[in-house]
Write a structure and sequence with these properties.
Layout: H1 4-15, H2 19-37, E1 48-53, H3 59-67, E2 78-86, E3 93-101, E4 123-130, H4 137-153, H5 159-174, H6 187-190, H7 192-196, E5 222-227, H8 232-238, H9 243-260, E6 263-266, H10 275-287, E7 304-305, H11 312-316, H12 331-334, H13 356-368, H14 381-389, H15 412-429, H16 447-452
Parallel strand pairs: 1-3, 1-4, 4-5, 5-6
Antiparallel strand pairs: 2-3, 6-7
Helix pairs in contact: 4-9, 13-15
Length: about 450
């Protein structure tokens, strides 16, 4: 029989876990306590979007669509809007500020009130261009990216801090994983906490970037939005754009996006294309909410390319469709601004019909001028009726037939036609002798008669 001391010693040894297991439990306890005590269950405040683009590119309508406003009102200078963001996995809400610049370059100095050292890590930039003027897309994106870079250069951000922002953009680009179709988001990998706690130093191995990728890394997430993509059909109809022209435009935009590590959206507020997807992607980038949509490059009006998906090899697929265009051609040489007024859509000319009596009177005048001088006698309407009466009678049920022997082959046939029109005029006006006044009612239904004369 074991002693009491031995039993207590064996009990203690059974209850005390190994050292490695104890350390592992302590790590998980620390993580759980950190989650409970931290405020990671709430959406962070102070997030902003800066919207830049030329005039008449659809910025106001796009922002109103993201807000859920049906009656957008256009302002001037620097406008402020906000979007209420709802956490789909909880009851938490946050207000996302939207700062929109108008297209006047003289107002770009107002950016200093929006993009500051304090707001920089919480800001997403949206560059907007329009498919209604494809010849301006690339130039507009380059101009506004230059304006953005100039505004950043004036900020007093420490080089080490700016490098941290740039490393986060690089890390996000590297860590992009194509979501599987119809797959549910993994709460451990798509939670706000995992997105918010990403640091640039999580791995000693840094993969090299591809050619043309993040050559202009400004440390800010950028979304390029091409609006009014419903206008593609108009470009094909009015300016004879082919698929190779659209692919040429797309490859230039995608190369621009690659240099900034930007995402690309083709949208249409009119047809409600990609607007909801754009909203989900924005809150994913700023708040870390789950996002499960894959890239789409098949439909030419609903292109969507998230940051981290694209590369030069994927862009090169578009080259196969370019027969008369080279990918390296200058953008302005291929997609040139049309000269003069835009060519309108060709419409069929509207045909107006004449009144019956006016048309018959014109035909009578025309035939009278063709009657030769040797025709001295014109048959009266009564004689025409008499000739018809003396024709061979028709049997019941039989159809009338024209006797070729009674049709004059010479010039007299024109006189017969003239008398025939005289009889029609006499019957219509009620005065057998003269055409009389022409009624102003009725439409022309005598095109076939004109053809027979």
């Amino acid at each position: 029989m074991a002693s009491t001391g031995d039993r207590s010693s064996s009990i203690r040894s059974d209850k005390s876990p190994p050292k490695d297991e104890s350390d592992e439990q302590n790590i998980w306890s620390d993580i759980l306590s950190e989650v409970q005590t931290s405020d990671t269950t709430k959406l962070p405040a102070g997030k902003n979007i800066v919207v830049l683009g030329a005039t008449e590119v659809g910025k106001t309508s796009l922002v109103a669509k993201l807000e859920g406003v049906e009656d957008p009102r256009k302002g001037a200078g620097l406008e402020y809007h906000y979007i209420d963001v709802q956490d789909e996995y909880g009851d938490d809400q946050s207000r996302l500020g939207v700062w929109m610049m108008d297209g006047d370059p003289h107002h770009t100095n107002l950016l200093k009130y929006v993009l500051t050292e304090q707001t920089y890590p919480n800001t997403l930039v949206m560059l907007v261009a329009s498919m209604s003027h494809p010849w301006n897309i690339l130039e507009s994106l380059q101009n506004w990216s230059t304006i953005l870079q100039d505004s950043i250069d004036r900020l007093r951000i420490a080089p080490d801090t700016l490098r941290e922002y740039q490393d986060k953009i690089v890390q996000h680009f590297h860590q992009y994983i194509e979501p599987e179709e119809n797959s549910e988001a993994d709460p451990m990998t798509t939670s706000r906490r995992s997105a918010a706690t990403l640091t640039p130093v999580e791995s000693d191995v840094v993969l090299p970037l591809g050619e043309g990728v993040l050559t202009q890394n400004i440390g800010l997430p950028i979304v390029v939005v091409i609006t009014k993509c419903d206008y593609v059909s108009n470009l094909e109809k009015e300016f004879d754009y082919k698929d190779e022209h659209l692919d040429f435009i797309q490859q230039h935009i995608r190369k621009f996006c690659l240099s900034f590590g930007a995402s690309l959206f083709y949208t249409s507020v009119k047809d409600n294309k990609n607007c909801d997807l754009l909203y989900k992607y924005i809150v994913h980038r700023l708040y870390g909410l789950p996002f499960k949509s894959a890239a789409c490059v098949v439909e030419k009006e609903t292109i969507f390319i998230p940051s981290g998906w694209d590369n030069e090899k994927k862009i090169a697929i578009l080259y196969d469709n370019m027969n008369s265009i080279k990918p390296d051609d200058r953008y302005s040489d291929v997609i040139s601004k049309p000269g003069g007024i835009r060519r309108p859509v060709q419409k069929e000319a509207e045909v107006m019909s004449e009144e019956d009596q006016l048309f018959l009177l014109k035909m009578q005048t025309h035939l009278n001028t063709q009657v030769p001088a040797n025709v001295s006698r014109q048959e009266s309407p009564a004689s025409i009726q008499k000739d018809r009466a003396t024709s061979s009678p028709l049997m019941p049920g039989s159809s009338p037939k024209l006797d070729a022997s009674k049709v004059a082959a010479g010039p007299g046939s024109e006189g017969v036609l003239a008398n025939f029109f005289n009889s029609l005029l006499s019957k219509k006006t009620g005065s057998p002798g003269s055409p009389g006044s022409i009624p102003k009612t009725g439409t022309r239904h005598t095109a076939s008669l004109c053809g027979s004369g």
